[in-house]
Amino acid sequence: MKYFLLVAVLLLAVGGGLFFLNPRVVGEDLTVAYKVVRVVDGDTIVVVGEDYSGKVRVIGVDAPEVSGGECYSGEAKARVEGWILGDYVNLVRDVDEFDDYGRLLAYVRFDGGDLGVRLASGGFVRYMTVEPNTVMRDVLMSNVYSAKDDGRGLWDVCF
Q1: CATH number at residue 137
Q2: Full residue range of the structural domain in which residue 107 is found
């Protein structure tokens, strides 16, 4: 009986931990796939889908601006192009649907991972929170600080 109870507690702990690492957020629908047809920069893509076509702003990260020629902007854009351009992604929404520029706000999931997290861990982006869209805040912040502490990506080249 003790063994069964221990296993049950461990399963709940692991399951609960996985929930917080990969939370279900408001409006999530992983059955809908969107084709990435253009990468604007490291935090903005253009998708085509059945229910939405247009610009998508990745929630929680801030990539250097290509249009402003900011340090490491080309590397961030190229990385996103290499990962998802021409492929299908899932868009996971948080609270707000659109930003002030009319871009859909979403976490971008592909190949079982999250675009923002991969960019953050590679040092391609800074961390940026805009309330109330904060479901992935702690995970993204942790990955950005880890990249910064290790001097990866823009943290090595630009600062």
Answers
A1: 2.40.50.90
A2: 25-157
